[in-house]
Amino acid sequence: MRDMRIYKGLILLMLMACPFMGQAQLTMYDFYLDVTAGGGLHAIQYSPEGGDHTPGFGSELKLAYRRPINERWCVSGGLGFSWYNGRSFYEDLRLSRAAVDAQNGEPYEYRVIFTNWKEKQHIANLEIPLMASYHYPINPKWNLSAAAGLKLFFPISNNFKITDGTLQTKGYFEHLTNIEYENLPQHGFFTKDDCEGKATLRKVGAAAAVDLGAYRSFKHSDMSLYMGLYFGYGFTNLAKEHSTLFDGTDYVGVVSSDRIDKAHLISAGIKAGISFGFPRIYPLPEIQHELAMEDENFAFILAGEIEKFEDSEVEDVLRIARELAAAEEARKARELAEVKEVVKWLNKNVKVEFKLGEAVVQMNDEIQSYINDLTHYIKTTPGRNVIIWGHTCNLGTEAKNIELGMQRSEAMRKLLIQAGCPINRVMARSKGSSEPLVPNTCEANRRQNRRIEIVVK
Protein backbone atom coordinates (compact mmCIF):
# COMPACT_ATOMS: atom_id res chain seq x y z
CA MET A 1 0.00 0.00 0.00
CA ARG A 2 2.82 2.38 0.82
CA ASP A 3 4.43 1.77 -2.61
CA MET A 4 1.10 2.42 -4.33
CA ARG A 5 0.68 5.74 -2.49
CA ILE A 6 4.17 6.81 -3.63
CA TYR A 7 3.41 5.94 -7.27
CA LYS A 8 0.07 7.80 -7.18
CA GLY A 9 1.74 10.83 -5.64
CA LEU A 10 4.41 10.95 -8.38
CA ILE A 11 1.80 10.62 -11.13
CA LEU A 12 -0.29 13.41 -9.57
CA LEU A 13 2.80 15.64 -9.38
CA MET A 14 3.51 15.00 -13.06
CA LEU A 15 -0.05 15.94 -14.08
CA MET A 16 0.12 19.13 -12.02
CA ALA A 17 3.48 20.10 -13.53
CA CYS A 18 2.61 19.46 -17.19
CA PRO A 19 1.00 22.87 -17.91
CA PHE A 20 4.23 24.59 -16.87
CA MET A 21 6.71 22.49 -18.80
CA GLY A 22 8.45 22.25 -22.37
CA GLN A 23 11.75 23.22 -25.63
CA ALA A 24 12.62 24.65 -29.06
CA GLN A 25 12.74 23.00 -32.47
CA LEU A 26 14.73 19.77 -32.41
CA THR A 27 16.16 20.07 -35.89
CA MET A 28 17.88 23.34 -35.07
CA TYR A 29 20.57 21.17 -33.50
CA ASP A 30 22.69 18.33 -34.76
CA PHE A 31 22.73 16.65 -31.35
CA TYR A 32 22.29 17.31 -27.63
CA LEU A 33 24.24 16.41 -24.51
CA ASP A 34 21.97 15.99 -21.48
CA VAL A 35 23.24 15.96 -17.90
CA THR A 36 20.58 14.97 -15.35
CA ALA A 37 20.37 13.98 -11.70
CA GLY A 38 17.37 12.55 -9.90
CA GLY A 39 16.13 10.87 -6.79
CA GLY A 40 13.16 9.02 -5.40
CA LEU A 41 12.06 5.47 -4.80
CA HIS A 42 14.95 3.15 -5.76
CA ALA A 43 13.91 -0.19 -4.35
CA ILE A 44 15.46 -3.63 -4.32
CA GLN A 45 12.12 -5.39 -4.58
CA TYR A 46 11.69 -8.93 -3.18
CA SER A 47 9.49 -10.92 -0.78
CA PRO A 48 11.50 -12.59 2.01
CA GLU A 49 9.97 -15.83 3.28
CA GLY A 50 9.06 -15.48 6.95
CA GLY A 51 9.95 -11.78 7.08
CA ASP A 52 9.05 -8.27 5.92
CA HIS A 53 10.55 -6.01 3.30
CA THR A 54 10.74 -2.20 3.09
CA PRO A 55 11.72 -0.49 -0.21
CA GLY A 56 14.42 2.15 -0.05
CA PHE A 57 15.19 5.48 -1.64
CA GLY A 58 18.13 6.31 -3.88
CA SER A 59 19.36 8.49 -6.70
CA GLU A 60 20.76 8.52 -10.23
CA LEU A 61 23.21 10.56 -12.31
CA LYS A 62 23.22 10.37 -16.11
CA LEU A 63 25.05 11.76 -19.15
CA ALA A 64 23.18 11.18 -22.44
CA TYR A 65 23.84 11.83 -26.13
CA ARG A 66 20.54 12.68 -27.87
CA ARG A 67 20.22 12.96 -31.64
CA PRO A 68 17.11 14.18 -33.54
CA ILE A 69 15.88 11.99 -36.39
CA ASN A 70 13.04 14.36 -37.43
CA GLU A 71 10.96 17.26 -36.09
CA ARG A 72 9.56 15.27 -33.17
CA TRP A 73 11.67 12.17 -32.49
CA CYS A 74 15.10 11.64 -30.97
CA VAL A 75 17.18 8.59 -30.14
CA SER A 76 19.67 8.63 -27.30
CA GLY A 77 22.29 6.62 -25.48
CA GLY A 78 24.54 7.39 -22.59
CA LEU A 79 26.19 6.42 -19.36
CA GLY A 80 24.97 6.75 -15.80
CA PHE A 81 25.14 5.62 -12.21
CA SER A 82 22.29 4.63 -9.92
CA TRP A 83 21.96 3.68 -6.28
CA TYR A 84 19.28 1.34 -4.86
CA ASN A 85 18.40 0.40 -1.28
CA GLY A 86 16.22 -2.08 0.57
CA ARG A 87 15.59 -3.36 4.07
CA SER A 88 14.42 -6.70 5.43
CA PHE A 89 13.18 -7.55 8.90
CA TYR A 90 12.77 -10.83 10.78
CA GLU A 91 11.01 -10.53 14.10
CA ASP A 92 11.47 -14.16 15.07
CA LEU A 93 12.87 -16.45 12.40
CA ARG A 94 13.88 -19.99 13.37
CA LEU A 95 15.87 -22.26 11.07
CA SER A 96 17.10 -25.77 11.78
CA ARG A 97 18.94 -28.64 10.16
CA ALA A 98 20.28 -32.06 11.15
CA ALA A 99 23.92 -32.18 12.26
CA VAL A 100 26.42 -34.51 13.92
CA ASP A 101 28.63 -33.54 16.85
CA ALA A 102 32.28 -33.71 15.77
CA GLN A 103 33.53 -34.81 19.22
CA ASN A 104 31.22 -37.67 20.15
CA GLY A 105 29.49 -38.40 16.87
CA GLU A 106 26.02 -37.79 18.34
CA PRO A 107 23.31 -36.49 16.01
CA TYR A 108 21.58 -33.26 17.01
CA GLU A 109 19.42 -30.48 15.63
CA TYR A 110 21.34 -27.33 14.73
CA ARG A 111 19.15 -24.29 15.33
CA VAL A 112 19.56 -20.67 14.14
CA ILE A 113 17.30 -18.03 15.69
CA PHE A 114 17.00 -14.46 14.31
CA THR A 115 15.40 -11.99 16.74
CA ASN A 116 14.42 -8.47 15.61
CA TRP A 117 16.92 -8.96 12.79
CA LYS A 118 17.24 -5.94 10.47
CA GLU A 119 19.33 -6.02 7.34
CA LYS A 120 19.99 -3.10 4.97
CA GLN A 121 21.00 -3.70 1.35
CA HIS A 122 22.71 -1.24 -1.01
CA ILE A 123 23.40 -1.73 -4.73
CA ALA A 124 25.29 0.72 -6.97
CA ASN A 125 24.98 0.23 -10.74
CA LEU A 126 26.72 1.40 -13.87
CA GLU A 127 23.96 1.99 -16.45
CA ILE A 128 23.79 2.27 -20.24
CA PRO A 129 20.38 3.67 -21.30
CA LEU A 130 19.08 3.30 -24.87
CA MET A 131 15.99 5.47 -25.39
CA ALA A 132 13.65 6.93 -28.00
CA SER A 133 11.91 10.21 -27.16
CA TYR A 134 9.00 12.21 -28.58
CA HIS A 135 8.96 16.01 -28.20
CA TYR A 136 5.86 18.20 -28.44
CA PRO A 137 6.53 21.96 -28.63
CA ILE A 138 4.10 24.19 -26.75
CA ASN A 139 5.76 27.45 -27.85
CA PRO A 140 9.27 28.55 -28.91
CA LYS A 141 10.54 28.23 -25.33
CA TRP A 142 8.87 25.07 -24.02
CA ASN A 143 8.23 21.53 -25.14
CA LEU A 144 7.05 18.37 -23.48
CA SER A 145 9.02 15.16 -23.79
CA ALA A 146 8.16 11.48 -23.39
CA ALA A 147 10.90 8.84 -23.64
CA ALA A 148 10.89 5.06 -23.38
CA GLY A 149 13.47 2.39 -23.85
CA LEU A 150 15.82 -0.09 -22.27
CA LYS A 151 18.74 0.30 -19.93
CA LEU A 152 21.45 -2.21 -19.18
CA PHE A 153 22.90 -2.12 -15.69
CA PHE A 154 26.00 -3.64 -14.18
CA PRO A 155 26.17 -3.93 -10.35
CA ILE A 156 29.52 -2.50 -9.26
CA SER A 157 28.82 -2.48 -5.52
CA ASN A 158 26.37 -4.72 -3.65
CA ASN A 159 26.66 -4.59 0.12
CA PHE A 160 24.52 -5.62 3.07
CA LYS A 161 24.79 -4.71 6.74
CA ILE A 162 22.92 -5.70 9.88
CA THR A 163 21.63 -2.62 11.70
CA ASP A 164 19.81 -4.27 14.64
CA GLY A 165 18.87 -7.59 16.25
CA THR A 166 20.64 -10.79 17.28
CA LEU A 167 21.53 -14.08 15.65
CA GLN A 168 21.81 -17.04 18.04
CA THR A 169 22.86 -20.62 17.29
CA LYS A 170 21.89 -23.59 19.51
CA GLY A 171 22.15 -27.36 19.53
CA TYR A 172 19.29 -29.62 20.58
CA PHE A 173 20.44 -33.17 21.55
CA GLU A 174 17.23 -35.18 21.62
CA HIS A 175 18.91 -38.61 21.90
CA LEU A 176 20.99 -37.62 24.95
CA THR A 177 19.18 -35.44 27.43
CA ASN A 178 16.58 -33.43 25.49
CA ILE A 179 18.69 -30.42 26.38
CA GLU A 180 19.24 -27.36 24.17
CA TYR A 181 22.82 -26.10 24.43
CA GLU A 182 23.72 -22.48 23.76
CA ASN A 183 26.59 -19.99 24.26
CA LEU A 184 29.24 -22.63 23.71
CA PRO A 185 31.49 -21.08 21.05
CA GLN A 186 33.89 -24.05 21.19
CA HIS A 187 30.97 -26.23 19.97
CA GLY A 188 29.74 -23.66 17.43
CA PHE A 189 26.91 -22.26 19.62
CA PHE A 190 27.13 -18.48 19.96
CA THR A 191 25.30 -15.14 19.75
CA LYS A 192 26.18 -12.27 17.39
CA ASP A 193 24.59 -8.95 16.59
CA ASP A 194 26.49 -7.65 13.57
CA CYS A 195 27.23 -8.91 10.07
CA GLU A 196 28.17 -7.29 6.81
CA GLY A 197 29.40 -8.40 3.43
CA LYS A 198 28.64 -8.52 -0.27
CA ALA A 199 25.64 -10.14 -1.89
CA THR A 200 26.11 -12.48 -4.84
CA LEU A 201 24.23 -10.94 -7.80
CA ARG A 202 24.04 -11.39 -11.53
CA LYS A 203 26.73 -9.37 -13.28
CA VAL A 204 24.42 -7.75 -15.83
CA GLY A 205 20.73 -6.92 -15.93
CA ALA A 206 18.15 -5.08 -18.01
CA ALA A 207 15.28 -2.76 -17.14
CA ALA A 208 12.48 -0.94 -18.93
CA ALA A 209 12.70 2.85 -18.55
CA VAL A 210 10.19 5.67 -19.07
CA ASP A 211 10.83 9.44 -18.70
CA LEU A 212 8.16 12.17 -18.77
CA GLY A 213 9.26 15.77 -18.58
CA ALA A 214 9.80 19.13 -20.21
CA TYR A 215 12.59 21.33 -21.60
CA ARG A 216 12.78 25.09 -21.13
CA SER A 217 15.15 26.87 -23.53
CA PHE A 218 16.84 30.22 -22.91
CA LYS A 219 17.12 33.27 -25.15
CA HIS A 220 20.39 33.60 -27.04
CA SER A 221 21.65 30.33 -25.64
CA ASP A 222 22.03 26.71 -26.77
CA MET A 223 21.32 25.52 -23.24
CA SER A 224 17.99 24.26 -21.87
CA LEU A 225 16.74 23.24 -18.45
CA TYR A 226 15.07 19.83 -18.06
CA MET A 227 12.70 18.70 -15.31
CA GLY A 228 10.56 15.62 -15.17
CA LEU A 229 9.71 12.22 -13.77
CA TYR A 230 11.26 8.83 -14.41
CA PHE A 231 10.14 5.23 -13.95
CA GLY A 232 12.09 1.99 -14.25
CA TYR A 233 11.36 -1.69 -13.81
CA GLY A 234 14.13 -4.27 -13.85
CA PHE A 235 12.92 -7.51 -15.37
CA THR A 236 16.19 -9.32 -14.63
CA ASN A 237 16.17 -11.47 -11.50
CA LEU A 238 19.28 -10.39 -9.59
CA ALA A 239 19.16 -13.32 -7.18
CA LYS A 240 21.87 -15.52 -8.66
CA GLU A 241 22.41 -18.06 -5.85
CA HIS A 242 20.12 -19.49 -3.18
CA SER A 243 22.37 -20.41 -0.29
CA THR A 244 21.32 -20.98 3.32
CA LEU A 245 20.95 -17.63 5.05
CA PHE A 246 23.44 -18.74 7.72
CA ASP A 247 25.36 -22.03 7.43
CA GLY A 248 26.99 -21.90 10.84
CA THR A 249 29.96 -19.87 9.66
CA ASP A 250 28.94 -17.35 7.03
CA TYR A 251 25.93 -15.05 6.84
CA VAL A 252 25.25 -14.54 3.10
CA GLY A 253 22.58 -11.81 3.20
CA VAL A 254 18.90 -12.01 2.32
CA VAL A 255 19.26 -11.27 -1.42
CA SER A 256 21.75 -14.13 -1.85
CA SER A 257 19.82 -16.62 0.29
CA ASP A 258 17.09 -19.19 -0.19
CA ARG A 259 14.66 -16.91 1.68
CA ILE A 260 13.73 -15.22 -1.62
CA ASP A 261 13.02 -16.43 -5.16
CA LYS A 262 13.42 -13.18 -7.09
CA ALA A 263 14.90 -9.73 -6.60
CA HIS A 264 14.17 -6.86 -9.00
CA LEU A 265 15.14 -3.20 -9.17
CA ILE A 266 12.29 -0.66 -9.28
CA SER A 267 12.70 3.11 -9.56
CA ALA A 268 10.37 6.12 -9.65
CA GLY A 269 11.39 9.69 -8.95
CA ILE A 270 11.92 13.28 -9.99
CA LYS A 271 14.93 14.51 -11.93
CA ALA A 272 16.32 17.74 -13.34
CA GLY A 273 19.26 18.71 -15.48
CA ILE A 274 20.78 20.75 -18.27
CA SER A 275 20.71 20.07 -22.00
CA PHE A 276 23.38 21.49 -24.32
CA GLY A 277 22.41 21.82 -28.00
CA PHE A 278 25.01 21.74 -30.78
CA PRO A 279 23.69 23.67 -33.83
CA ARG A 280 23.18 21.77 -37.04
CA ILE A 281 25.14 22.83 -40.14
CA TYR A 282 22.89 22.50 -43.17
CA PRO A 283 24.15 21.98 -46.74
CA LEU A 284 23.03 24.60 -49.25
CA PRO A 285 20.05 23.49 -51.38
CA GLU A 286 20.27 23.36 -55.17
CA ILE A 287 19.00 26.97 -55.36
CA GLN A 288 22.15 28.93 -54.61
CA HIS A 289 21.71 32.29 -52.91
CA GLU A 290 25.20 33.11 -51.73
CA LEU A 291 25.13 36.28 -49.69
CA ALA A 292 28.82 36.53 -48.75
CA MET A 293 30.40 39.39 -50.64
CA GLU A 294 34.00 40.24 -51.37
CA ASP A 295 35.38 42.11 -48.38
CA GLU A 296 37.98 44.52 -49.73
CA ASN A 297 38.80 47.89 -48.24
CA PHE A 298 39.35 50.44 -50.99
CA ALA A 299 39.71 53.38 -48.60
CA PHE A 300 43.42 52.76 -48.12
CA ILE A 301 44.67 56.37 -48.39
CA LEU A 302 45.77 57.56 -44.95
CA ALA A 303 46.34 61.19 -44.03
CA GLY A 304 49.96 60.47 -43.19
CA GLU A 305 50.63 59.02 -46.63
CA ILE A 306 49.84 62.31 -48.40
CA GLU A 307 53.15 63.79 -47.24
CA LYS A 308 55.02 61.27 -49.41
CA PHE A 309 53.71 62.87 -52.60
CA GLU A 310 54.77 66.04 -54.41
CA ASP A 311 52.33 68.95 -54.41
CA SER A 312 51.54 68.32 -58.02
CA GLU A 313 50.59 64.73 -57.21
CA VAL A 314 48.33 65.43 -54.22
CA GLU A 315 45.35 66.44 -56.38
CA ASP A 316 45.69 63.24 -58.41
CA VAL A 317 45.88 61.13 -55.21
CA LEU A 318 42.79 62.80 -53.76
CA ARG A 319 40.94 62.34 -57.03
CA ILE A 320 41.82 58.65 -57.09
CA ALA A 321 40.72 58.32 -53.46
CA ARG A 322 37.38 59.96 -54.28
CA GLU A 323 36.90 57.64 -57.23
CA LEU A 324 37.71 54.61 -55.14
CA ALA A 325 35.36 55.77 -52.40
CA ALA A 326 32.59 56.28 -54.97
CA ALA A 327 33.26 52.84 -56.42
CA GLU A 328 33.06 51.36 -52.93
CA GLU A 329 29.75 53.08 -52.29
CA ALA A 330 28.42 51.85 -55.63
CA ARG A 331 29.59 48.33 -54.82
CA LYS A 332 27.82 48.44 -51.46
CA ALA A 333 24.64 49.77 -53.11
CA ARG A 334 24.73 46.94 -55.70
CA GLU A 335 25.37 44.43 -52.94
CA LEU A 336 22.45 45.68 -50.89
CA ALA A 337 20.21 45.64 -53.96
CA GLU A 338 21.25 42.05 -54.69
CA VAL A 339 20.59 41.01 -51.10
CA LYS A 340 17.19 42.68 -51.15
CA GLU A 341 16.33 40.84 -54.36
CA VAL A 342 17.41 37.54 -52.81
CA VAL A 343 15.40 38.21 -49.64
CA LYS A 344 12.40 39.30 -51.73
CA TRP A 345 12.64 36.10 -53.76
CA LEU A 346 12.98 34.00 -50.63
CA ASN A 347 9.99 35.70 -48.97
CA LYS A 348 7.96 34.67 -51.99
CA ASN A 349 9.33 31.18 -52.56
CA VAL A 350 10.67 29.92 -49.20
CA LYS A 351 7.51 29.81 -47.12
CA VAL A 352 7.73 30.32 -43.37
CA GLU A 353 4.13 29.61 -42.46
CA PHE A 354 2.45 28.90 -39.12
CA LYS A 355 -0.39 26.80 -37.79
CA LEU A 356 -3.52 28.58 -36.59
CA GLY A 357 -2.85 30.33 -33.29
CA GLU A 358 0.77 29.12 -33.10
CA ALA A 359 4.15 30.85 -33.29
CA VAL A 360 6.45 27.87 -33.91
CA VAL A 361 8.62 27.98 -37.04
CA GLN A 362 8.28 24.69 -38.92
CA MET A 363 11.92 24.17 -39.83
CA ASN A 364 13.27 22.54 -42.99
CA ASP A 365 16.64 22.51 -44.78
CA GLU A 366 15.77 25.40 -47.09
CA ILE A 367 14.68 27.69 -44.24
CA GLN A 368 17.76 26.78 -42.21
CA SER A 369 20.01 27.48 -45.20
CA TYR A 370 18.24 30.85 -45.60
CA ILE A 371 18.92 31.61 -41.92
CA ASN A 372 22.58 30.59 -42.19
CA ASP A 373 23.25 32.68 -45.30
CA LEU A 374 21.41 35.75 -44.03
CA THR A 375 23.28 35.54 -40.72
CA HIS A 376 26.61 35.30 -42.51
CA TYR A 377 25.81 38.37 -44.57
CA ILE A 378 24.71 40.48 -41.58
CA LYS A 379 27.76 39.43 -39.52
CA THR A 380 30.20 40.32 -42.31
CA THR A 381 28.50 43.53 -43.47
CA PRO A 382 28.53 46.34 -40.91
CA GLY A 383 25.60 48.73 -40.99
CA ARG A 384 23.03 46.23 -42.30
CA ASN A 385 20.00 45.36 -40.19
CA VAL A 386 17.19 42.82 -40.41
CA ILE A 387 13.53 43.61 -39.72
CA ILE A 388 11.17 40.65 -39.33
CA TRP A 389 7.47 41.32 -39.84
CA GLY A 390 4.93 38.91 -38.37
CA HIS A 391 1.58 38.44 -40.13
CA THR A 392 -1.67 36.64 -39.28
CA CYS A 393 -4.93 35.74 -40.99
CA ASN A 394 -8.14 37.64 -40.18
CA LEU A 395 -9.42 35.23 -37.50
CA GLY A 396 -9.58 36.76 -34.01
CA THR A 397 -9.41 40.34 -32.81
CA GLU A 398 -6.80 42.69 -34.21
CA ALA A 399 -5.25 43.14 -30.75
CA LYS A 400 -4.72 39.39 -30.52
CA ASN A 401 -3.42 39.26 -34.08
CA ILE A 402 -0.87 42.01 -33.40
CA GLU A 403 0.33 40.04 -30.37
CA LEU A 404 0.46 36.75 -32.33
CA GLY A 405 2.29 38.43 -35.23
CA MET A 406 4.90 39.71 -32.78
CA GLN A 407 5.32 36.21 -31.31
CA ARG A 408 5.92 34.82 -34.81
CA SER A 409 8.50 37.46 -35.69
CA GLU A 410 10.18 36.89 -32.30
CA ALA A 411 10.39 33.17 -33.05
CA MET A 412 12.31 33.84 -36.28
CA ARG A 413 14.43 36.52 -34.54
CA LYS A 414 15.48 33.93 -31.97
CA LEU A 415 16.51 31.49 -34.73
CA LEU A 416 18.66 34.16 -36.42
CA ILE A 417 20.31 35.11 -33.12
CA GLN A 418 20.97 31.45 -32.27
CA ALA A 419 22.61 31.10 -35.69
CA GLY A 420 24.99 33.95 -34.75
CA CYS A 421 23.28 37.11 -36.03
CA PRO A 422 24.16 40.14 -33.84
CA ILE A 423 21.30 40.66 -31.39
CA ASN A 424 21.20 44.45 -31.80
CA ARG A 425 20.80 44.19 -35.58
CA VAL A 426 17.70 41.98 -35.69
CA MET A 427 14.33 43.55 -34.93
CA ALA A 428 10.89 41.96 -34.59
CA ARG A 429 7.74 43.79 -35.67
CA SER A 430 4.09 42.86 -36.22
CA LYS A 431 1.48 43.89 -38.77
CA GLY A 432 -1.22 41.56 -37.48
CA SER A 433 -3.79 40.89 -40.20
CA SER A 434 -3.46 44.30 -41.85
CA GLU A 435 -1.46 43.17 -44.91
CA PRO A 436 -2.79 39.83 -46.19
CA LEU A 437 -0.81 38.19 -48.95
CA VAL A 438 -4.05 36.87 -50.49
CA PRO A 439 -7.72 37.49 -49.59
CA ASN A 440 -8.85 35.66 -46.43
CA THR A 441 -11.67 33.90 -48.26
CA CYS A 442 -10.80 30.27 -47.44
CA GLU A 443 -8.56 28.25 -45.15
CA ALA A 444 -5.93 27.71 -47.88
CA ASN A 445 -5.57 31.49 -48.27
CA ARG A 446 -5.59 32.12 -44.53
CA ARG A 447 -2.78 29.60 -44.18
CA GLN A 448 -0.66 31.62 -46.64
CA ASN A 449 -1.34 34.80 -44.65
CA ARG A 450 -0.05 33.25 -41.41
CA ARG A 451 3.59 34.05 -42.17
CA ILE A 452 6.66 36.17 -41.53
CA GLU A 453 8.53 38.39 -44.00
CA ILE A 454 12.09 39.64 -43.72
CA VAL A 455 13.46 43.00 -44.81
CA VAL A 456 17.18 43.92 -44.99
CA LYS A 457 18.14 47.60 -44.63
Describe this structure in words.
22% of the residues lie in helices and 42% in strands. The relative contact order is 0.12. The strands form 2 sheets. It has an 8-stranded antiparallel β-barrel. The chain is an alpha+beta fold and 457 residues long.
Largest sheet: 8 strands, antiparallel, barrel
Oligomeric state, counting identical vs distinct chains: single chain
| Integer-rounded radius of gyration | 36 Å
Q: How many strands in all?
A: 15
Question: Spans of 5+ residues with little confidence (pLDDT < 50)?
Answer: 1-24, 282-304
* Shape estimate: elongated
How do the strands and helices of this protein lay out in sequence?
Blueprint: H1 2-17, E1 29-45, E2 52-55, E3 57-68, E4 73-100, E5 107-137, E6 142-173, E7 179-182, E8 191-192, E9 196-198, E10 205-217, E11 223-234, E12 264-279, H2 311-349, H3 365-380, E13 386-391, H4 398-418, E14 426-432, H5 443-449, E15 452-456
Parallel strand pairs: 13-14
Antiparallel strand pairs: 1-3, 1-12, 2-4, 3-4, 4-5, 5-6, 6-7, 6-8, 6-9, 6-10, 10-11, 11-12, 13-15
Descriptive tags:
3-stranded mixed β-sheet, elongated, 8-stranded antiparallel beta barrel, 457 residues, 22% helix, alpha+beta, 5 helices
